[in-house]
Amino acid sequence: MNIFLRAIAVLPLVLLLTWGALAAPPAPTASSSFTVPVVYYKLPNGLRVALSSDHSAPTVAVAVYYRIGFRVEPKDRTGFAHLFEHMMFQGSQNLGKMEMIKLVQQNGGTLNGSTRFDFTNYFEIVPANKLETMLWAEADRMRGLAVTEDNLKNQQGVVGNEVKVNVLNRPYGGFPWLDMPQYANSNWYNAHNFYGDLKDIEAATLPDVQQFFKTYYAPNNAALAIVGDFDTAEARKFVDKYFAGIPSVPQPKEPDLTEPRQEKEMKASKPDPQAKRPALAVAYHMPARNTPEYYAMGLIDQILLEGDDGWLHEELVQKRGMTGNVEGGINLLGNMYNYNGPMLWTMDLYHDNNVKDDDIMAAIDSTVERIRTKPVDQKTLDRALVKMRSDFYDQVSQSNGFGRADLLCSFALFDDNPQRINDIETQFRKITPALIQKTAEEYLRPTNRTVLTIEPKAGESTQASKWGN
Amino acid sequence: MRNRVIALTCTMFLALAWSLPPSAQDVTSAAQSVAAKKQSPPPGSAPKPFHVPQPEKLSLPNGLQVTLVPYGAIPKVQITLSVRAGNLNEAENQVWLADLMTSLMKEGTASRSAQQVAQEAASMGGSVDVNVGADITHIAGDVLSEYGPKMVALLADVAMHPLLPASEIDRLKKDQLRNLTIQKSQPQPIALEQFRKALYPNHPYGRVFPTEQMIQGYTIEDVQKFYKDNFGAARTHLYVAGKFDTAAIKKAISEAFSSWQHGPDPLIDIPKPVTKHDLALIDRPGAVQSTLYIGLPTIDPSNPDYIPLQVMNSILGGSFGSRITANIREQKGYTYSPNSQVSPRYRDAYWLQVADVTAQHTGDSIKEILYEIDRLQKEAPSDAELAGIKNYLSGVFVLRNSSRAGLIGQLEFVDLHKLGDDYLNTYVQKIYAVTPQQVEQAAQKYIDTQKLTMVVVGDKQKVAEQVAAYQGSGM
Questions:
Q1: Of A385-399, B18-32, B86-100, B319-333, which gets the smallest average pLDDT?
Q2: Between B157 and B52, whose confidence is greater?
Q3: Helix axes A357-373, A433-443, angle to 10 degrees
Q4: Per-residue pLDDT for B5 more than 70?
Q5: Which of A93, A116, A428, B105 is deepest in the core (most CB within 10 A)?
Q6: Among candidates B204, B173, B181, which has minimal Cα distance to B86?
Q7: Domain annotation covers residue A251
Q8: Chain A CA closest to residue B342
């Protein structure tokens, strides 16, 4: 599928994302409701712990989320939060370089880590009987790193190649997921290059690594979720045994991440010498998280942008034939639940040279104006709610429990309330056609958006030089 | 689906990835200094049993096969029509005609407009998803459980009564032309095209991309004929997995599909792939990385050696802890996401190592890949390394069989390759039976380094000299 024709996946990581739900004995009748069991508590050192058992498959997902994402990284060290994430696999006191990975794999499991806007996560999915082994290992690297100059140099090479394969050595590299926040935001924390300038990545030192760990990788700045086939009392015992002794560390005050209200439409154009066709993306600033308007935007996304019944698909693809696909959503590096700061709702499309940007924008405007000027009918709202509920069930079951752990950790870190996982559907149900219209009036204003176009141009790209090389 | 351009965005920040068994020289002095007081991980408790969910199978008089697997706690059901038709069924001048036909299937049926199809699926919490592969075309939807029977009826309508309207073909051809151009501007599809062309010079598997002229020439009659020649009950297997009301689903299947004509039997066209050393260097001026595709034809899943081959592949390059990844990523830092795989089609397969490597280490990377193949051919893996990879494969097997889509994928694999109903139940047992010698022999027998097809997509100026040693027939 997608860019790798006929199903050759170059990043085997994708496999992780395709695993699915949890097994259970077949139910005689199907009924469309699901409650997630949640046990939530804190250790005296501040570690937030969320447990959600499901005995239907003999597997368990263990996830540790640290409340440090790529927004908040040292200003002269773009890309550092992500480089640091790689270092968390290079060795801790009791696990040398790559021993963590060997430990997980040889016990029949898989693992990964990722860096996002407001957290960095590490997770394992293993046979259920290996829960204690994984908790021991995660606690070991929460206690401290044992990494060397060689490890750092090696991972600087790996990360440099990661940036090359995903951004520099391909057309549309970074479009729009990495580019758009840089154009649409005005606060440095939201608007810098999260993947990192190659020069900054290469300049990182071992003391930088140790300092970053000392500052942010503390139990009181983290959440641990366990999802799957385990006994709650026993799991609590293990968590206590391995994590309770790790000292807490006073956390620095979070910098001001706020974005001012946008009052004027912004336009940017990026020449891309590797591209052969133009592309266009539009991003609007989102309402603040967890407000009624935020939930309304979730439904607006479903109505306008998600699926073949989306209004933008109908207008731009089906009716006008301007593109083959309009894609996007809330938080292109995650989902609408796992962030905690200013966010964008983004759409993007690829088109032919003879389709003009102004015409595309006119088609987008005519579609978006429909939702700004008239309340949606009940049938449209009902359909959006069903789509949302269906997506949500996928989220709480995907990747053998990791999808659920993602929500539990996000809600623990950002809201101190993982029980929210069972309240989400209720919040969407409260949204009325009137609130959808009011939300669209304010947040889908043309003056609240940034339009970014990719121009297929040979020769020197001004944007490319920004990457340094 | 070929009409989506950006696939990597969310995985890219999934940073880590592969692993590497540290060999003695990897252990740094700092690590050695703490080695003395290292604790061992707690081993965990006794393993819990796992049983693959058991399917129920039935068929209709017209030849339609049906497999139902009740599964999971989540109130959703996946319904997949798996049709034995795809790019295999295209003539030499018909590349992507299967894709064009499948796109047109979403443009309405005899009784529903395109918008109605889209809205009905959405109001069940799903969508009608179509995609074309070499051997199989999928028409599928994943919906809330209570809508299972309705979704069966909708998918049946799309599959049996597509309108294939002439009014939409120009727009969809335009989309294909754009996708073709965009895909051919990316290094991995360029490499794949060349690799397939080298292995299958006279077979549909070797034709990855059409020419623009081909697409421009397709008519609605071509599309309608392709549908008529290739779709029907006898080529179709319907899979249902998830939470569903069995009686209601069976009733819906019988009502919706009984009237479908038997249609053609599956086309059997097994290729005779070329196994021969060759290196193609495709110039991509300015490329900061070289994209490597290195591989050769191998045995298909019906061969008893396929399981030892899988184990060997996982040790060599196909897992987080594999040797090639250890070498060129974690020791050398040449690359981010190397991976090897066995890629099967019906009675056909190839082994392939891919990697995007930093340009100045293109030659070094090939050298190290060959070194690791050679090492596995000369020396069987240790019992410990093999035991670790067996645990990994059996663990991943459990994960693969623990989702609706994953289960359907497994069952379809068994059906396509005719592996027998017992295959999944005995898979783990067969994995654990593989010996170190079998792994060594699989590397010797199935990866002849003198016969590798190598494709390098990179900046000729930077890499020509580096790969010169691998050009020509002598290596």
A1: B18-32
A2: B157
A3: 140
A4: no
A5: A116
A6: B204
A7: no
A8: A8
Please state, for a pLDDT cut of 70, what percent of chain B lies above it: 92
Residues 124-163 of A with CB under 8 A from B: 125-133, 136-137, 146-148, 150-151, 153-162
Whole-complex ipTM:
0.91
Site from B1, B4, B8 to mutate, A interface, most A CB atoms within 10 angstroms = B8
The answer to whether residues A277 and A231 belong to one domain is no
| Residue A285: CATH number of its domain | 3.30.830.10
Residues A230 and A344 in one domain: no
pLDDT at A89 over 90: yes
Q: What are phi and psi of B57, to 5 degrees?
A: -120, 140
pLDDT value for B2: 33
Which of A337, A298, A78, A317 is closest to A208 using CA atoms?
Answer: A78
Are residues B76 and A390 in contact, defined by beta-carbon separation less than 8 angstroms? yes
Q: Does A170 touch chain B (CB under 8 A)?
A: yes
pLDDT at A15: 27
CATH code 3.30.830.10 for B56-257:
yes
pLDDT of amino acid A468? 27
Q: Do B336 and A96 touch (CB under 8 A)?
A: no
Residues A239 and A288 in one domain: no
| Residues of chain A contacting residue B356, judged by C-beta atoms under 8 Å apart | 10, 161, 164-165, 169
The DSSP call for residue B162 is: B
Span B246-269, average pLDDT: 98
Q: Do B41 and A318 touch (CB under 8 A)?
A: no
> Where do the domains of chain B lie?
56-257, 278-470
How many domains does the structure of chain A reveal?
Answer: 2
> If you average pLDDT over residues A405-424, what whole number do you get?
98
Q: Give the CA distances from residue A365 to residues A303, A349, A449, B306, in Å, rounded to whole numbers and listed in that order.
A: 15, 15, 12, 55
Tokens of A157: 């090479």
Answer whether B73 sits within 8 Å of A34, measured CB to CB: yes
Chain B closest-CA separation from residue A139 CA (Å): 11
Residue A380 has pLDDT above 90, yes or no: yes
Whose CA is closest to A344, among A423, A424, A254, A451? A451
A284 and A223 within one domain: no
Confidence band for A56, pLDDT divided at 50, 70 and 90: confident
Give residue A20's pLDDT band: very low, low, confident or very high (50, 70, 90). very low
For A137-155, what is each residue's pLDDT tens digit?
A: 999 999 999 999 999 999 9
**Residues near B38 by beta carbon (within 8 Å), at least 6 away in sequence:** A93, A94
A274 in the same domain as A173: no
A window 187-246, beta carbon within 8 A of B: 195, 229
CB of B303 within 8 Å of any CB in chain A? no
SS3 label, residue B245: coil
Chain A residue numbers with beta carbons less than 8 Å from the beta carbon of B15 are 82, 85-86, 113-115, 159, 162
Q: Do domains B56-257 and B278-470 have the same CATH topology?
A: yes
Domain hosting A288: range is: 266-398+416-468
Last residue of a domain, one of A209, A243, A277: A243
Superfamily of domain B278-470 in CATH is Metalloenzyme, LuxS/M16 peptidase-like (3.30.830.10)
pLDDT at B19: 28
Residues A173 and A51 placed together within one structural domain of the fold: yes
Among B14, B174, B181, the strongest candidate for a mutation testing the A interface, having the largest count of A CBs within 10 A, is B14
On whether both A299 and A378 belong to a single domain, the answer is yes
Which of A19-23, A185-189, A266-270, B270-274 has the least mean pLDDT?
A19-23
Read off the tokens for B433: 């039976």
Tokens of A111: 């693992």
Is residue A459 pLDDT above 80, yes or no? Answer: no
Tell me how far apart the alpha carbons of residues A382 and A429 are, in angstroms, rounded to a whole number.
9
Q: Are residues A232 and A298 in the same domain?
A: no
Q: Does A426 lie at the interface with B, CB-CB under 8 angstroms? A: no
- Residues 46-65 in A contacting B (C-alpha not used; CB under 8 Å): 54, 56-59
* pLDDT given for residue A461 in this prediction: 39
Chain A residues with CB-CB distance to B53 below 8 A: 23
Q: What's the whole-model pTM score? A: 0.92
- In sequence order, the 6+-apart residues with CB closer than 8 A to the CB of B462 are B287, B359, B360, B362
